[in-house]
What does this fold into?
Amino acid sequence: SSRRRHTRYGTVTGVQTCALPILAEQQKFIRQLAKLKYNRLLISTYAWQPFVHFEFAGIAKQTSLLWFGYHYRVDGDTAGRGAFKGAKFFENPDFVGKTGYEERFAAGKQLIAGIIDTAHSLGMTAGLALSPLEFPKEFATALPGAQSVHQLETLTIGPGPQQKPGDATLHGLAKAQIRGWLDTYPKLDALYLTLPEFPGWATHHAEAFRRLAERSKLPASVTLDGLLAAARDRKTLASGDRGIAALQGNLTALDFLQTLLADESTLRLPQGKRAEVVLIDVDPALFPVLDKVLPQGARSLNFVDYTARRTVASRHLLQQIPAKSVPSSLILTLADDNVGVLPQSSVVALGELTGDLRQQGFEGFSTRYWMPGDLELSAYFLSRSSFDGTVTPRQALADLVTPICGPGAVDPVQKMVDHIEAATALVEQNDIGFTFPIPGVVLKHYQSGDAVPEWWGAASTEIGRAHV
It folds into this structure.
């Protein structure tokens, strides 16, 4: 499965970003979200993208990639190539022809700053998400013993066994990167810090837990063995050995961040302001003590599992979050990148989760998706249900479709949504990485040599019926 990136929108403290090409298209999209009363826009970033520049220990950032460095051809026999008007590759128009680091950074800065200004002009706030423990590879020499971080590609480094959470060099590098973002975009309202999902920095977890327990005054009933058992035995995708590794990395990262963020200069904005801090992806094993292990003053944006249906199946974990004592939101997955490029719908599950959030006192939600084109109903339903807890997915669909197509279209559109929901569930249950959007997404199945599984036919039938 993929590394999670949270491109999202929400309400109350909700958030949004998208992957549309040029600033003008971003602005058009954001205006539609503002009409639905979404009120925070979140720009989710990677360390290797051309959106920030910073220097540390005499080393200057020089990596400026998009899409993990992949190049998607749209010429030759590519279906739909006419829409690209002769272009050979699918590229962001703001970056076409820009090959040098400085000009790519200038284009990236203009794009992000324009998005932030658009959000503010519409009465929305703007946040930016980054992984504070991942750095471009050129900084490896400044962090001896650093480990490579393996995602779709190996483009970043992170702390290795040699770096303890109190390592001064690591603190300096992390602070330099955070300051790079805040100095480049001083109009930001909030900074979202993602804890590592696939941590390689678990060596110091026992020592980190001891410091966390002492500093956070954890009750004696909270033990390291108990937390590890909870991470191992849960039913989410991150369970077993992976769950243990995730928790171990979280403990070390939380110990590190408690110290890093205690330095007031790390988060300083112009005019004496301080960026709001939100931690993303604190391990569910730590939900019961979330109000104690977060850095002082931090909010939490929580993640349970990769899809809305999977989160519903583990909704008991949400009940462990002390949402009334620490401002908390939940990531609602509208479309998962693991399910991929197929049409997706999980409106029924989203309805159940919004009810849980309201009942438990969450301050809001954030949404997660990659491509927004199929998500009109999901976005509309979440907008409506945020202000009226009695609104059902069926009622939201009728209210959305009737002004556009007339009342006679409601039942056919509902049937279409039902078929897409059924197809989405089949992919989730059988092969959650089925159409993950990477080069070779189709050929990997053709070249595998495996027999075609029966569920492919069932999913194909559901998708076909949705388009009849």
About this structure: Confidence is low (pLDDT under 50) at residues 1-20. The two ends are 32 Å apart (CA to CA). The longest helix spans residues 101-121. Residues 329 and 365 are 5 Å apart (CA to CA).
